């Protein structure tokens, strides 16, 4: 039992009716029908394909879960494949949910792979714009695309916040830990996945604008253009975040190398200073007579040499910013 709606003469007339009644309403040219199917089988789609005149290739594409976002135009209908996403702010991981749509002159059929694609949010957008219901299927398609693109934009905004947090951590007092490095890796993977989803949407919406005559009148064109602008912004933002994240990673590696060089300079400097008393005490500790051997003056002479040479080394290394 899928979700169903019937619009007639620009008004929501009925919803929640059995899918078996869809064929009766489709025959009415004044009616616009929407029904949704979640994780259907091949037999479920074949049962409606003959009634709506769906192409066999489109039905096969709807059942596949690794389709790229696209819009295919057939003689009797159009087939659209889109994704919604969910971004985890704690781990930086991105999860994608596939949905397909069959678009005819007076019907929209949505096929979701799982409940992760929130059809309730799509319906809310339809309910928020009752003045557009008179535009038929174009109105329904716009609400679907509006949800998808806004969902992408929200994910990009969340990713941007994560990138800013990483940027502050890179220039912080403490170096990035293992958790931060893992989050950076996951965020980079998520941005790559998000780009693969967002970038083809430009072609999808652009094709709908050019083919608007197949699903509605020209009055819906500005609304689709607004969605297209959002797609461009999301795409450009995603690309800039990928570049920025790459720069952050390179900066982190450079700063890590600089810290390592600084540590090595300090260790080497202290080792050189420590070598001074080791040399002098080792020399005076040989089992042979030496200047001052057996006298107190010899002890103070070696001690003075240790202090003077160590201080000289310290001042030289300090002046060169090695300590």
TrEMBL record:
Gene Ontology cellular component terms for the protein in this record:
plasma membrane
Pfam family, any one: CorA
Membrane disposition? Multi-pass membrane protein
Instruction: Extract one GO molecular function annotation from the record.
Output: magnesium ion binding
Compartments in which it is found: Cell membrane
Keyword DNA repair attributed: no
What superkingdom does the record give?
Answer: Bacteria
Q: Does the keyword Lipoprotein apply?
A: no
Q: Which residues cross the membrane?
A: 267-285, 297-317
Q: Print the keywords alphabetically.
A: Cell membrane, Membrane, Transmembrane, Transmembrane helix, Transport
Task: Tell me which family the UniProt entry assigns to this protein.
Answer: Belongs to the CorA metal ion transporter (MIT) (TC 1.A.35) family.
Q: What is this protein called?
A: Magnesium transporter CorA family protein
Q: Which organism is it from?
A: Microbispora oryzae
